[in-house]
Amino acid sequence: MVVIRDLIIQGAQMLLVLLLAPLFTGFVRKVKARLLRRQGPPLIQPYLDLIRLTRKEVVLAESASWLFRVIPYLVFAATWVAAALVPTFRTGLLFSWSADLIAIIALLGSARFFLALAGLDVGTSFGGIGSSREVMIASLAEPAMIMIVFTLALIAGSTQLSNVAEFMASPQVGLRVSLALALIGLVMVAIAENGRVPVDNPATHLELTMVHEAMVLEYSGRHLALIELSNSLKLLLYVSLLACLFAPWGIEAAGASVPTLALGAAAYVGKLAVGGFLLALFETSIAKMRVFRAPEFLGVALMLGLLATLLRFVSGSF
Amino acid sequence: MTFDAVTGVLVIPAVAAALLAVLPGYRITARLNVAATTLTLICALSLFFVRPAPGVYLLVDDLNGTFIVLTTFVGFTTSVFSLSYIGHELETGRLTPPFVRFYHAMYQVLMFAMNLALVANNIGLMWVAIELATLTTVLMVGIYRTHEALEAAWKYFILGSVGIALALFGTILIYMAARPVIGEGLAAMEWTVLVTRAGAFDPALLNVAFVFLLLGYGTKVGLAPLHAWLPDAHAEGPTPISAVLSGLLLNVALYALLRFKMLLAVNAAALAPGPLMVTLGLLSLVFAAFMLYRRRDIKRLFAYSSIEHMGIIAFAFGMGGPIANFAGLLHMTMHSLTKSAIFFAVGHVAQVKGTQRIADMGGLTETHPVLGWALILGVVAIAGLPPLGIFMSEFLIVTSTFARAPLLAIILVFGILVGVAALFLRLNSIAFGEPRGSSAKAQASYVPLFAHLALVLAAGIYMPPALVAWFQNVAGLLG
Amino acid sequence: MSRIDFDIAHLLAGSLVLISFLELYQDRLYALLNVFAAHALVLAASVAWQAFIQDAPHLYVTAAIALTFKAIVIPVALHRIIVRLGIHREIEKVVGVGAAMLAGMGLVALSMVVMLRVTHGADPLAREDLAFALSVVLLGLLMMVTRRNAVGQVIGFMSLENGLVLAATGARGMPLVVEISVAFSVLIAFIVIGIFLFRIRERFDTVDVQVIDRFRGERR
Amino acid sequence: MTLTIALGCAAALLALAAVGVIIGRSPAATRVVYGASLIIAAVSFIAGLVQLVGAAAPFDLTLPLGVPWLGAHFRLDALSAFFLIVVDLGAMSASLFALGYGEHETAPQRVLPFYAAFLAGMTLVVLADDAYTFLFSWEFMSLTSWALVMSHPRVPENVRAGYVYLVMASFGTLTLLFAFGLLAGPDGLYTFTQMRAAHPSAALGALALILALVGAGSKAGIVPLHVWLPLAHPAAPSHVSALMSGVMTKVAVYGFVRIAFELAGPPAWWWSIVVLAVAGATTVMGVLYALMQHDLKRLLAYHTVENIGIIFIGLGLSLAFNAYGMTFAAALALTAALLHVFNHSLFKSLLFFGAGAVLTTTGERDMEHLGGLIHRMPQTAFVVLVGCAAISALPPLNGFVSEWLTFQAILLSPQLPSWGLKLLVPAVGALLALSAALAAACFVKAYGVTFLGRPRTPAAERATETDRFSLAAMFFLAALCLVVGILPGFFIDALAPVSTALLGARMPPQIGAQWLSIVPIAASRSSYDGLLVFLFITLSGTLAAYAIHRLASDRLRRAPAWDCGYPDLSPATQYTATSFAQPIRRVFGTFVFRAREQVDMPPPGDMRPARLTVQITDPIWDYLYAPLVVGIGVAADRLNRLQFLTIRQFLSLVFSALVILLLVLAIWS
């Protein structure tokens, strides 16, 4: 009985992230447009795009291989699973123990691995640019992320996301230096991983500065739709990760009743709104940097993470 | 005195020498040569079973038993090898029939001299025998009568004579030391007597004597810095002689040294001979290892490797102790077999390629697979790699030394490593790479070559208990 | 043994060392040969004296060999060679006479120090003789390494060997002395003949060892 | 019993080597030798499996071989059983692969005998129980693999590779000789049993451990002793490269574990500092070197260096925990290391097989001349993709599991009291994370440039799918990679006897955990379930595919590549390995390898093409080995003058020696 209930909740969680993801993307775009004194597209524009794309036929390059066609599904699946494992409105999800924070990062890593391969598959120069830059950024972002995870794990005594979140919600965790460092680092990583300004610009095309868009340049139709969707999912994932780690208020523990769950969901949506607004604000207020500034940017994140971990190693009071 | 095995190993070569000096014709003489060495070998082997009591002049005990069997065996295989080798030299006209006759006679004289040096119970007699061996080898080294050959012979001759002189002085000193204790006459030069009474000898005299003997016989052993004659003599003489020189004559001289070392070991007050031998050994090892790098002549290359290994052996005996002495004996045996095998291979290679220059031979494993792989196997063995016997002796030497004197062991291993690197550097250009030089079919006698290698291989994997007991017994004697 | 015997033996041995110094001093080949003949002569005398005081008749053989072979045959033969090969009469030395002399002094001192450590158990004559013999040997070696041309070296070697014979005869009652001295004479004969061979076979245009070394190894 | 079988297999392999010598040149030889070695390896594999899983008591056996008064001691305990399994698994797959691959061998008589002997050597190393037998088999292994490296001696690089390899191998063996000489003591207690009983002093044990690290490490390829590895491994035939990279380096790890955990006595905390520092450097340097390569096999060889570093990180952590008596953490770290040993042997062999398949059909090892192979050899491309994903530590494959366990071990290390470790371990963790990310980048490059894109040369265009034996071997290994990835619990439990034997502790049993997940310490702390992740991904992936194809369009049209509307350019415009690595080279290479890019731009009107050249210097070779080589050369030249002295000068050498000795006597009293 309990299992079934948990199963339902897990499913609800998965659906929720899937449905919320495009909306969140749309919301960020809208806010950005408003901040730029523009009308901006309607909130539901991403949904419309996705539907349009799925309807269209796929135009596949002659030199594309079977792998090129499989990858979108792989990427989507990996991202979705990762996103589904991040607690949004309730901790202690049924399958939360099946992959801890490190595994979630690794899942995103595999998504990126295959996407980078896709960039090389058709054999065009743009795809190559995209992949090589993507892996360069990832090669710094991932270790930074791991270091941040170390910090959190050492504070909470667990790499299990639900447990970390519960611990964060508990009063025993006060303000800590290492936490602050981890927060900054995580934000920087999140920006880089989602290809937002100042590292990359999701809205550009046909510029040699672009990274992610160049990689998926050859995709079209349903494939492109899936990739767009997984991007939104990834963005949502990071925001909810930040939310459940650094703003764990309102996340219900396991065994909460339905109304409280609704309350938690509401809190979650609220957090998303705040996060999205802040993101948009940040993006509008800063200019994109050169590609080879990105390593320095991420190097800072890595150093922050390492510093935080070191502090934790040296003494538990930091 | 009655004819026993000991007189056998002396008389047979002597008679054979006389016959070969007069008999004409290559076929008969060569066969006779082999026959004589075979008989000698049989006599030597019989020493295992019936061992005559030590006489005034002759003596057979565990120590020289080892050497006699080894000497006669390698002498036998080498004679088989020279059967085909000298035949080829005759065809190519590098040697004329009279010289071949001379060569065979001298070969037997050399055998006689070495056996005499081994079985002699009298330090004077031993000295005479070693001088005789030296003179014969000098003549054989010069046998090709090219500029280089004569020059090598001359160098060998002068340095050898000085060595002999020093050794003689040492011998006299030993007698002087012995006389007050033992009294005048032959008794004061007999091993059997000397060893028993050496404790009472005058230590100062013994020390001076050992210094002279070490340098005198050390010249024959080829320890640096007394080695100068060795590389050229090996390179310029006929290959069978190189094999015998490296495989046997060096051992015989070393045997003499060991005998005298035993004398000093008995005398508590005398200076310990170990450190001297260790120093000279390490010096020779490291020096020879570096000298290997710039060699362009294949036979000179392996001559230097002989110096290197004599250094290792001297080091082992210098360290002393049951394990090190055992290892030293084993290493000496293995080195004789391996090095002569290598020279067999090298001889055929040089004949086929028509040169001794390493630069002119290449890709041997492709042009002459059997010879090539035999050479590789030999070098692998001499480099102390398993599954061949030298690995065991080096294992024992290094491990036993490192526990006692780490610094020495480090120097030792450094030398070994440098030597291995150099050997394989040369081997690569000989055995691998683009084939160079003629690829004509070699009419070679592989039997002695592979017989030796097989023995070395067997020793690396399994040693018969009887042999082991024998070695351990000797190791005990050496103290 | 009586005092006088001892003194005579001592005198002979000592003079042998002295003559070695004289050899070291020479710089002309003929002179060197003559000095060496003297060396051999003294040796013969000393050996004969030993034979007399040890009343060991076989030593007379050695003395005879020394006299005939070393004091007469070899010098004459070398004379011939010098004439035949037209070796110029100067002896090229590596170090000057003075330095050689000093080195010689050092060597004599060294041999004394080494030998006088010997306990007095061995009779004094033997000790003194050994000390002298050792000095003669070392001086001979010194001569070999400081002389550039072969004849000089041969003479050095022979005086070295004289030292050995001196020691051997000094060793009272040592067997095989005769055999050994014979063996050595053979050896020397070989050397001399070797020099001849090189000449006769037109191998080398001089016996200067350095020129022989032109054909040293690795030069192909 | 199992030991007897294993030894019998080794003997059979040696006999097979002899057979190989005899029938080497006959056409049937390949099938005979590889088929036989496949069967023998399988038998010995079963023996090892029985021993390990059955957790039977160790077997001892002494044969009257080797050093006479000692005899050859053999022992099959949990540790050697595990490594026996690794060896035989590699041997089996390599033999299976070679059944097809060996047909292309031009000089089988140079490969077959040594191949069998090589396998025998590796088997004997893990079975040996005394110093002589161990080093004998160890050096025999090196020697046979050297012969295999030399199997195409006309190629100058191979000869050089073989030379460097042999010298480094002898160096390693001699170092181990020291280590054992130290442990055996002056009166030569050579058997491991005696050494275990000896309890060496702390300083002695430390020295032995460092010697073992150098000796075994030079064979395993730890920086800076790795130089031979990227030369020698690619030079050998590919199935041998697989064995050398995937298995022989593991045998070296075995040697280190045997000495460090058993023979060297109780560890001191600072041992782990040494090991961890070396391991961290090895990990990152290995992957950075790999990123600079465009030779496929050399790239793989450098990744072996990296993975050896990861293994040694685990071992170092285990030593540290063990020194402080935290045996459970030690067991976790050790298990992580050993599991990575197993995993790496799987996917590294797989990848080398793939490289071999590519090499046979295209004759190319240089990625810059390949591309688009996925169209011509789809099955090979698929298995190699699995291998790449596994070595890049992507879930749900096996590489991730072992790295995850290593991370878990690192997360336990704040409890270590020592300050040095407190500061070092996080840094090592960062290096590990960095190298994991870089490895993924490197394999995107390797796979993308080799198999994806468009063919860059006619050779790549003419490529064909490889033979069925090779495919069988590769699919076998790929399947194993997946199985270990989704069911790690069984393998972790199988390793329990090893850690129990070495540390007296084991990881908690995993079989009981819910949904076959693995729980290293406690469920509240961390857990991972490869099976579930795998099911999730497949499920959601297929779901998405089904939904879209069903509800939306499934139409598809082939057209020229879009590429921002540029006309279809030649394959030469594709990204190459070098250009792909350019951003990373710019970030890391500039200070590690002093990488410089030089652009030669012709003036306007000049028709010649512009050229961009990249220069990379290998710091370790330049600063460590080159001076050594030069020094030896100088010394050799100096001493060589002694060959050309005159007789008189030689005489003066003798003379001075005499005088010196007499002086010694005069002074000595």
Which characteristics define this entry?
heterotetramer; A: 318 residues; mainly alpha; 11 helices; globular; C: mainly alpha; 8 helices
Q: Can you characterise this structure?
A:
The complex is a heterotetramer of chains A (318), B (479), C (220) and D (669). Chain A is 70% helix and 1% strand. Chain A has one domain (2-314). Chain A starts with a helix and ends with a helix. With 318 residues, chain A is mainly alpha-helical. In chain A, helix 1 packs across helix 9 (221-246), helix 3 (66-84) packs parallel to helix 9 and helix 5 (125-156) runs antiparallel to helix 7 (177-193). Chain B has 19 helices and no strands. The longest helix of chain B has 36 residues, at 147-182. Chain B is globular and about 65 Å long. By secondary structure, chain C is mainly alpha-helical. Chain C is 76% helix and 0% strand. Chain C is globular, with a radius of gyration of 18 Å. Among the domains of chain D are: 1-266, no CATH class; 619-667. Chain D is 70% helix and 4% strand. Chain D has helices at 2-23, 29-53, 78-101, 112-127, 131-149, 156-184, 192-198, 202-220, 229-235, 238-263, 269-292, 296-323, 327-362, 373-376, 378-391, 398-412, 419-451, 458-461, 468-486, 488-494, 496-503, 530-551, 577-580, 582-592, 619-640, 647-667; strands spanning 59-63, 72-76, 556-559, 596-600, 611-615. In chain D, the strands form 2 sheets. Chain D has a two-stranded antiparallel sheet. The longest helix of chain D has 36 residues, at 327-362. Chain D is globular and about 105 Å long. The relative contact order of chain D is 0.08. Chains in contact: A-D, B-C, B-D, C-D. The C-D interface holds C 94, 107, 110-111, 113-114, 117, 138, 141-142, 144-145, 147-148, 153, 209-210, 212-213, 216-218 and D 643-648, 651-652, 654-655, 658-659, 662-663, 665-666, 669.
Please sum up the structure shown.
The complex is a heterotetramer of chains A (318), B (479), C (220) and D (669). Chain A has helices at 2-35, 45-55, 66-84, 101-121, 125-156, 161-169, 177-193, 212-215, 221-246, 258-285, 294-314; one strand at 58-61.
Number of strands of chain D: 5
Tally of alpha and pi helices of chain B: 19
Radius of gyration of chain B: 21 Å
Biggest beta sheet summary of chain B: none
Major pleated sheet of chain D? 2 strands, antiparallel
What distance lies between the first and last C-alpha atoms of chain D, to the nearest angstrom? 63 Å
What oligomeric state do these chains adopt?
Answer: heterotetramer
C-alpha end-to-end distance of chain B = 33 Å
Instruction: Determine the mean pLDDT of chain D.
Output: 92
- General shape of chain B: globular
Radius of gyration of chain D: 27 Å
Runs of chain B in which pLDDT lies below 50 for 5 or more consecutive residues are none
Rounded mean pLDDT score of chain B: 90
Instruction: Name the helicity range of chain D.
Output: 55-70%
Please report which band the strand proportion of chain B falls in: under 5%, 5-15%, 15-25%, 25-35%, 35-45% or over 45%.
Answer: under 5%
